[in-house]
UniProtKB/TrEMBL annotation:
SMART domains: DEXDc, HELICc. One of its GO terms (molecular function) is 3'-5' DNA helicase activity. It comes from Streptomyces dangxiongensis. Signal peptide: none annotated. Keywords: ATP-binding, Helicase, Hydrolase, Nucleotide-binding. Residues 326-478 form the Helicase C-terminal domain. NCBIfam families: DECH_helic. The keyword Glycosyltransferase does not apply. Residues 99-285 form the Helicase ATP-binding domain. PANTHER family: ATP-DEPENDENT HELICASE HRQ1. Residues 27-37 have a biased composition (Polar residues). Coiled coil: none annotated. This is DEAD/DEAH box helicase. Residues 1-41 are annotated as: Disordered.
Length: 814
């Protein structure tokens, strides 16, 4: 019963000349095939009556010429010469504009398409400034800090910087500083590195708590580069926003005020999101001047099978099986392709199936398809990237490890196995296809899911809408509190600091004092504990002690799972995936936070079932919707995992259900909810016998559709529907954030409720099933086994509710 959605907005994918190391010869084994137009490749994929019926829509995005400019005259000539030596004679207009803002001291966000040269837009002014600083008569000169969401991306960028800056000699000293950096290198980096590449986790736990050892670096800090900043959303983004405020506070202490340079995939209101992330005014550069070849984008819906799921609902062929077939066919055609898959196991599975099918056609093709995912060693990843560039590999089944910044642009086709959650990610992945000036093919294969089904039948929701706004909430008290403690441990917290951390400080500080975490002495708050304040929170988690996943036979620690997710992911009997291998959980010890697992290869996956109740703590806002009401506020959710299902891997067929005995958990969070009255029920012809099923079906579908309006995944949110709720005394549907304190998703749902619930109604009404299926109203996580559900009742109920919706919904403040 958990699903989610995000805001809309996007510029179509762009393709440009990347940094020189990405230029490659077209004299590869795939050259002849790749000369085929993307339309011809698609026609071949769709040949045959059963195949052609699977394409629900084809969008043609025309080619676009690039617009050049000149670098600002303040850029050092040595830097321009180094860029030209890489084969880039002139910048695109957006690169030159971003560099101009950076040199003027304006924080700037570059929000343009994939392969549009965002890296160069910030690297050129940074390198020029570092070169100026190297000639300073005293001190270490200027420094710059680069933040990436993943260690792999920071390592890739470090290699790019070293290649580009090689002609500049020792004036630029790039170095990666993360958890993998050898201890003996760290002191050198602190003392001499002037372009340090790291991630928010290391900044939070390593650099800021040890700021005195970084004093000379922070004193000279001129630029902070935040790459792929659209990934900082929800709770993770809210944590990163507070980490950046702690960084700014320490910089001010050492006498610096760095300029922030942000790079983002195309997004709605990028300057607004960047301001919420950094706490600073940010200039927006979003007019993409890079060239783009023709892009043919097909929406592909797998056919119904003869199998039946819960309550006899029809089941579609899986996106995994369909994508494996498409990757096979593209490889046979000699088309260089990547299939993007949401899970590591899915990537491995698609590669294996494609290899098996290729063996039946030509055994020499088997070695030309591989999987690419997180968990591989760096040398393995680089070997795969080189093989793909050279044409030795024709097909790759990849997770999003390949989506963020890793240089594999220049492919001929991309297949996306299931909507990736946001339009920003969709265009990011599709943008991996296309060479300079040449056409490309992208295919979105729908999963058996309400949102995917809606999108392949409503292409305007993808192609006529902008990409999403980035949703984050730095004022979330569950996020703010541990960062106030960490800040006080770094330097005593003063009244003047409170403005930096936001208005919620006034409510949170007294609570921290009462908990004896902070103590006020004279004019400042001090950290009172011996332990490290930075360890109070994991910025990627949701609080609580992580559960350690331990291999039973060897005692080897495989990894950890967030406490909030442990009940549903590592319960006894769960199939747990780790680095491509499947383990079965033998036991879960909640007291010691340990899950014992053993390696296995079950022919099924597991899905936890839960029951949920909800109470309203406070209503912040409410709006009349006819005689009903739409509300937003704080709630307390009580959830208990009660059983799990075993589902066959390929078909999703339910093999059985096993009961569990786990304690309930409570969550205080934010929610949107709507009520209906007797008059609206009469209007919708909802009799008492179908009321519960109608509300339940509307709840499931609305959760499935929310990721279209909020930058969330359906697993980030939850829902509850009640025929008579004790707090409202009316039939009520709740959708809530699955994170303590909220993550901004429910708030976004409240402000886009008319469009969100209209899309929900349309998704249910347009589904071709008779009584409800996974494509419309069935949920993969329903604690009640998708019972009761009433499809037609949900349509009539939403119709009556929307009839009373106001024309104008209050917009969310920025």
């Amino acid at each position: 019963m958990h699903d989610a959605l995000a805001p809309l907005s996007v510029t179509p994918v762009t393709h440009s000349v990347p940094m020189a190391k990405n230029h490659r010869s077209d004299q590869s084994p795939a050259t002849t095939a790749s000369r085929l137009s993307p339309g011809t490749v698609l026609d071949r994929l769709a040949s045959g009556p059963s195949r052609s019926a699977r394409i629900t829509h084809t969008e043609h995005l025309p080619p676009r010429a690039g617009r050049h400019a000149v670098w600002p005259d303040r850029i050092r000539s040595e830097v321009i010469a180094a860029v030209q030596a890489c084969g880039i004679e002139h910048p695109w207009a957006h690169q030159a504009l971003a560099a101009e803002h950076a040199l003027d001291g304006d924080s700037v966000v570059v929000a343009t398409g994939t392969a549009s040269g965002k890296s160069l837009a910030y690297l050129v002014p940074v390198l020029s400034t570092l070169l100026d600083g190297a000639e300073a008569p005293n001190g270490r000169g200027a420094t710059a800090l680069y933040l990436a969401p993943t260690k792999a991306l920071a390592a890739d960028q470090c290699r790019s910087v070293k290649e580009l800056s090689q002609p500049l000699g020792t004036a630029v000293r790039p170095a990666v500083y993360d958890g993998d950096t050898p201890f003996e290198e760290r002191e050198w980096i602190r003392q001499y590195g002037n372009y340090v590449l790291t991630n928010p986790d290391m900044l939070h736990r390593g650099i800021l708590p040890s700021h005195s050892r970084w004093s000379s670096f922070l004193k000279s800090l001129r630029y902070v580069v935040i790459d792929e900043c659209h990934t900082y959303r929800g709770v993770f983004g809210s944590h990163v926003a507070q980490v950046l405020r702690r960084l700014r506070r320490l910089c001010a202490r050492y006498g610096s005020s760095p300029v922030f340079l942000l790079a983002s995939a195309t997004s709605a209101e990028p300057a607004v999101a960047a301001r919420r992330l950094t706490g600073l005014p940010v200039v927006e550069v979003a007019d993409d001047a890079s060239p783009r070849g023709e892009l043919v984008f097909a929406l592909w819906e797998p056919p119904l099978t003869e199998l039946h799921g819960e309550k006899g609902a029809p089941v579609r062929r899986t996106a995994t099986a369909e994508t494996a077939d498409l990757l096979t066919d593209l490889t046979v055609q000699g088309v260089r392709s990547v299939a993007f898959v949401r899970s590591r196991r899915g990537a491995e599975l698609i590669a294996v199936i494609a290899q098996q099918k290729l063996a039946e056609v030509d055994r020499s093709l088997v070695r030309r398809v591989a999987a690419y995912r997180g968990g591989y060693l760096p040398e393995e990843r680089r070997a795969l990237e080189r093989a793909l560039h050279s044409g030795e590999l024709l097909g790759l089944a990849a997770t999003t490890a390949l989506e963020l910044g890793v240089d594999v642009s220049g492919l001929d086709a991309v297949v996306i196995a299931g909507y990736p959650g946001t339009r920003a990610s969709l265009w990011q992945q599709a943008g991996r296809a296309g060479r300079s000036g040449q056409g490309a093919l992208a295919v979105l294969v729908a999963r058996d899911d309400p949102l995917d089904t809606f999108l392949v039948h409503h292409p305007e929701a993808l192609f006529d809408q902008p990409v999403e706004s980035t949703v984050l909430d730095p004022d979330n008290p569950y996020v703010l509190a541990p960062h106030l403690c960490a800040a006080a441990a770094e330097l005593p917290l003063t009244e003047e600091d409170l403005e930096l951390f936001g208005p919620a400080c006034a409510d949170v500080l007294p609570q921290l004092e009462a908990a004896k975490l902070l103590r006020r002495r004279t004019s400042a708050w001090h950290w009172t504990r011996r332990e490290r304040a930075a360890d109070l929170t994991d910025i990627r988690g949701t609080g609580g002690r992580p559960v350690q996943v331990v291999e039973a036979g060897t005692g080897r620690l495989l990894g950890t799972v967030d406490a909030s997710a442990a009940h549903s992911t590592v319960h006894e009997g769960a199939a747990h995936l780790h680095q491509g291998r499947t383990y079965l959980v033998r036991s879960l010890d909640l007291e010691d936070s340990v899950a014992l697992v053993e390696q296995a290869d079950p022919p099924y996956s597991t899905v936890a079932r839960d029951t949920t109740s909800i109470s309203i703590l406070e209503t912040d806002t409410e709006v009349p919707w006819g005689t009903g009401r739409l509300c937003f506020g704080s709630v307390e959710v009580t959830n208990q995992v009660v059983s799990y299902l075993r589902r066959r891997l390929i078909t999703g067929e339910v093999l059985g259900e096993t009961k569990l005995d786990l304690p309930p958990r409570t969550l205080r969070t934010r929610a949107v909810w709507w009520t209906v009255t007797e008059d609206q029920l009469d209007e919708a012809r909802i009799i008492p016998e179908i009321l519960g099923g109608s509300l339940h079906a509307a709840e499931h579908a609305s959760i499935g559709m929310l990721p279209l309006f909020a930058t969330c995944d359906r697993w980030d949110i939850g829902g509850v529907s009640v025929p008579l709720h004790p707090d409202t005394l009316l039939p009520t549907v709740f959708v809530y954030d699955g994170h303590p304190g909220g993550a901004g998703f429910a708030e976004r749902a409240f402000h886009t409720a008319r469009a969100w619930l209209t899309a929900t109604r349309e998704a249910i009404a347009s589904c071709e099933c008779e009584a409800g299926c996974p494509s419309c109203i069935q949920s993969p996580k329903c604690g009640n086994g998708n019972d009761p559900l009433h499809k037609r009742g949900a349509i009539r109920l939403l119709t009556a509710l929307l009839r009373g919706a106001p024309e104008e919904q209050p917009e969310q403040s920025s």
